[in-house]
Recover the amino acids of this structure.
């Protein structure tokens, strides 16, 4: 539950940042419309009857060291 609470905080803090530009510049929404959508999303995220799941993948690599 602790990890879920921290995840909720992280999502709520970043939600506007990764939504506003996409919806306004790519989809042509008004900023006010996006804010209404985000308010509803936040409400749903806090609803214990809704189980939000986010799948993500992490890929990393390391550049080979140069030979001397």
């Amino acid at each position: 539950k602790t990890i879920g609470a921290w995840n909720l905080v992280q999502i709520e803090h970043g939600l506007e940042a990764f939504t506003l530009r996409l919806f306004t510049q790519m989809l042509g929404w008004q900023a006010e419309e996006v804010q209404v959508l985000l308010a509803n999303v936040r409400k749903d995220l806090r609803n214990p009857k809704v189980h939000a799941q986010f799948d993500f993948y992490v890929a990393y690599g390391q550049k080979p060291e140069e030979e001397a």
